[in-house]
Amino acid sequence: MISVAGLGSLVLLLRPSILVGATSDPGDELEPQPYFAGVGRAVAAMADLGAPLSLPDAARIAALSLQADPSAVRQAESILGRYTLARLRIDRDGRVHMAQGDAERNLVEQGWSTFLVRVENAAGEKAGFEVIQNGYKTPGQMLGGFSLAQRAFLMDTVNKAPLIEKMWLMAQLHGTTPISRYGIEIPVVNLSGFPVEYQLLTLFSRDRGKRSAKLVFTTYPEAKAGATTSTLFDFNCLPTRDVFLAIKDSDGRGCVASLTIRDKLGHVYPPQAMRIAPDMFFQQQVYRADGENLRLPNGEFTIESRRGPEYLPGVQTVVIGAVSGMIEVKLERWIDPAKWGWYSGDTHIHAGGCAHYQVPTEGVSPETMIRHVRGEGLYIGDILSWGPSWYYQKQFFTGHAESRPATLEHPELQAANNASLLARATPEDSLSTLRYDVEVSGFPSSHAGHLVLLRLREQDYPGTKLIEDWPSWNLPILKWAKQQDSLGGYAHCGSGMSVDSTDLPNYEIPPMDGIGTQEAIVDVTHGAVDFLSGCDTEPVAELNAWYHMLNCGYRLAMIGETDFPCLSAERPGVGRSYVRLDELPEGDAGYEAWIRGLRQGRLYCGDGRSHVLGFEVEGRRSGEEDVALLKAGRVKVKALVAARLNPLPTAETEAIRNSPSRGWHLENARIGDTRTVELELVVNGVPVATATIVADGTPREISFEPMIAASSWLALRIMPSVHTHPVFVAVGGMPLRASRKSARWCRDCVDRVWEVKSPFMRESERPAAADAFDHARRSYERIEKESVGS
Questions:
Q1: Which residues of the chain are under the pLDDT cut of 50?
Q2: Residue 547 has what pLDDT?
Q3: How far apart are CA 14 and CA 217, in angstroms?
Q4: 662, 719 in Cβ contact below 8 A?
Q5: This prediction's pTM
Q6: pLDDT for 14
Q7: 8 Å CB contact between 352 and 392
Q8: Distance CA 408, CA 119 (A)
Q9: H helices within 68-113, ranges in order?
Q10: 3-class DSSP state for residue 309?
């Protein structure tokens, strides 16, 4: 296995005290049989890594291994010297020496080159070795607790480009295992203890032309201080070329897509540790637009193309040769919900914090995030500024939605990093809209549940200059958002809500020790909660509280979110909401319409792998007027549903199904090894009818006729992949009071929330909070008395 040791650094680790020099003559003391066994393994590994010995040299080594005498050893050493970059020696006293080998020091721009490292181990000891480019560590790793992706470790430097320019070299050792030193995992090669052996070092060159790097070798012995030696290596880095991309949507228009590029050995391009925005070190994919480019060396590459869950993944093999060319990517949809008036959005994306680097700047700009939103086929992307990046990211808040050009936010750093990306606009760019809003996370009230505030006009709570000035509980913040006609709800709502039961609904009282629904159960009684955000935590924990509050007559929505790149650093749009609109939501007006649809309940949410394209109860859709019945009776439910699974399970899909998380993913709804899933009609949280759906991507009409005995809410779901907003049915003009047990559950949860959360509130704010909690208790006690269901 090959491990990345760092950007701009060569991290070569061998187990301490073992490396013995390359300058000594092996003489007659080397035993031919074990020597050639080790050489054979090294030669085979060179071939596996795409850098085989020449056919004559390989044949000669094979013949010498059969000869197996001292003369054969000396001849083999002469041949292997031509492939050896560095010759290392560890003396019996632990001192380390390094000399240059005889290999031609040619590298390839944006490519990998593999060399032998000869290790002479005088004492036969076993230790570890590190090799770095002198003076530079690796961005993308955790150093001193800071996430340093995209930037060098520059606490004292204003201009970062000169240092990034020097960080041009990266190395991997073959067959490493990690050891821990100074809180950092260091990849180590385990040596045999034989007096002479060969290890493999693969170098990545970011640049072209003549470059130099001082390689520093340091031992990490277990029982004594290590030793260090260094040598300056001159390299000739051969140039490669830019390959341009033709990326077309299913209708033939140019667009942005997600591309994951690997060579035959599995190397990802561009290397993740050497990326600068808009390419992220924590993602394997990059996002490119039609007409943009990639710099690739000669060779064979596999390109996986995606654009969100509504598209079929595409895989193609391309060969890059001596003449620059173009890679064509033709995307194929399996469904387009917009044809039925449904437009997707992710209301919980971050541009700073979590997997994003945090110092010396905090996150990326709108120009980078709009590229990611476009590349996942999202119409709406809400970027939420929060605690870890608040003071930097809040500069991007305007109170409006925009569709900015996906330009390079740091062209000087791109130039220093020898990046060749030329940003290009596409005909579909305006279809994706970005807006900056707020997640109240990392604020004094965060213990009571993280708030998502959408469509804010002002982002600073009145009278505050610092995060620490904000309220220590949530209701005042939600009321302030309401004054702006904004939407407020609770993020990752399943956090702190898990119980032993997997029933829906269930009546176990959650621990309330997380950052999910928590105080929402209180705030909803004050008319202050518009939604819960889910599809990114445990489905049962998310839905249970929502069902209970709906049963009490409170009309809040469940919307989809990703919490990128915190709960998921995979990509935006892993969880998403689909809002029904009469026209395409473009620009500020389109965003306003999308948010109005969200508020009205014209939506469904999920993972985007299944869709409820139509859902009517007696001709009424969610977000429209209630269905009114004079008395109990049956209602007609019509639906149009589509889902898509691979025809048969694969190793990848089985890994999803067998994951302990069992999160939101259509694979978790697959029935056995079939291509079918179950659609459920839910009335007041309880499934009352089901239908089996073939998940081949074809929209299918489904109908039910359930009996409705009292005022109720009805919804459709494929667990755990999609859930609609309810359609409400009023029977005899009575309010919805579906379950005494739900009201009692909510009442008991108020006590649990107070018990767990009130100690974190400011003493000065606790009396007002106590009054608000008492209001919630009285509300649920009244609803319990009014309820008609058990």
A1: 1-24, 27, 137-155, 360
A2: 98
A3: 10
A4: no
A5: 0.89
A6: 34
A7: yes
A8: 45
A9: 70-81
A10: coil
Query: Residue 79 phi/psi, 5° resolution?
Result: -70, -45
Q: Could you tell me the two tokens for 558?
A: 């469940």
**And the tokens for 519?**
């105080």
Q: Which tokens hold the place of 182?
A: 């100074």
Inter-residue contact 117 to 12 (CB < 8 Å): yes
In this predicted structure, what is the pLDDT of residue 157? 57
Cα distances from 270 to residues 275, 406, 505, in angstroms, run 7, 19, 47
Please tell me what DSSP assigns to residue 696. B
**Token digits for 501?**
């039961």
DSSP 449-506: --EEEES-S--SPTT-SSGGGS-SSSHHHHHHHHHTT-EEEESSTTTT---S---SS-
How does DSSP assign 575-592, residue by residue?
SEEEEE-SS---HHHHHH
CB of 347 closer than 8 Å to CB of 559: yes
Element of type H or E holding 521 = helix 520-523
CA distance 742 to 361: 47
Cα separation, 85 vs 121, in Å, equals 17
Six token digits for residue 517 = 């629904």
Q: How many helices (H) and strands (E) would you count in the chain?
A: 14, 46
- What pLDDT is stored for residue 420 in this prediction? 85
**Residue 699 near residue 642, CB atoms below 8 Å:** yes
Cβ atoms < 10 Å from Cβ of 238? 16
Instruction: Give me 753's structure tokens.
Output: 């929330």
- Tokens for 576, please give them: 């998403």
Q: Report residue 19 as tokens.
A: 């490396």
Chain Cα centroid distance, residue 42: 36
Is 553 in a helix, a strand, or coil?
coil
541-561: b (≥16 Cβ within 10 Å) or e: bbbbbbbbbbbbbbebbbbbb
d(CA 365, CA 788): 53
d(CA 561, CA 535): 6
- Would you state the structure tokens that stand for residue 35, as one six-digit string? 């020597």
pLDDT computed for residue 453 by the predictor: 98
Q: Both ends of the chain: CA-CA distance in Å?
A: 60
Q: Which parts of 553-699 are beta strand (E)?
A: 557-560, 576-580, 603-606, 610-617, 620-621, 627-629, 633-634, 637-643, 676-683, 686-694
Phi, psi at 395, each rounded to 5°: -65, -20
Residue 747 φ then ψ, to 5°:
-60, -45
C-alpha R_g of the chain: 31
